[in-house]
Amino acid sequence: MTTPSRRRLMRDFKKLQDDPPAGVSGAPTEESIMHWEAVIFGPQDTPFEDGTFKLTLEFTEEYPNKPPTVKFVSKMFHPNVYADGSICLDILQNQWSPTYDVAAILTSIQSLLDEPNPNSPANSLAAQLYQENRREYEKRVHAIVEQSWMSFAEEEKELRSTSLAKMHLRRAKTMVRLELMVPTWTNKKSIG
Fold first, then answer.
1. pLDDT tens for each residue of 45-86
2. DSSP 3-state percent helix, strand, coil across the chain (nearest 5)
3. 8, 46, 57, 161 — which has fewest CB within 10 A?
4. SS3 string of 76-110?
5. Considering only CA atoms, which of 54, 8, 52 is closest in space to residue 34?
6. Angle at alpha carbon of residue 135, lines to 129 and 141, rounded to 5°
7. What's the pLDDT at 120?
8. Active-site residues: which are they?
9. Where is this region: Disordered (predicted)?
10. How far, in Å, are 65, 148, 170, 172 from residue 75 at the CA level?
11. CA 51, CA 67: separation in Å to the nearest integer?
């Protein structure tokens, strides 16, 4: 059943594919168009540069009238990101408008990485360090940037090993099929 929210999400996805904003990517999961996975690349010339940060977006049937629930899956050290990955961003709360689409959400979050709002902190330590000890703040951000590389490297390794296992399983199944067929061919040849 196609609902207005699902049609809108299909349009959002098409727009992201046809005209992708720099440094962000997102797509619905195979299970549901209402559940998206996204990646934001750390903006250049910021402490987040070179980071690769994963997020999830959960939509309800009230979208676009209500914002999605957006969370970082990747570990994040930022004044406006809670420990559970939830994001304190006005457009995801009281400043939401149905005109915002997935591309606007992701680019707004990417901008937030560079321009945090320490006056509305979700992480008080990050906000305090951002205001009072920028060197320590950036040191901690660099650590999570490195962690973002490691998590992607681990996932790629797991994906490769899973793909390799699937390939070996396919080969094994093919060999079993061939072995099961050989007696049939042998019997037919000896009969004929």
1. 999 999 999 999 999 999 999 999 999 999 999 999 999 999
2. 50, 15, 35
3. 161
4. CCCCCECCCCEECCHHHCCCCCCCCCHHHHHHHHH
5. 8
6. 75
7. 87
8. 88
9. 1-28
10. 29, 8, 36, 39
11. 25
For residue 176, give the 3-state DSSP assignment: helix
What pTM did the predictor assign?
Answer: 0.79
Judged against a pLDDT cut of 90, whether residue 95 lies above it is answered with yes
Residue with tokens 């660099």: 142
What would the two tokens of residue 126 be? Answer: 């990050």
pLDDT of residue 182: 46
pLDDT in tens, 144-176: 999 998 776 666 566 565 555 555 555 555 554
CATH H-level, domain 4-154: superfamily: Ubiquitin Conjugating Enzyme (3.10.110.10)
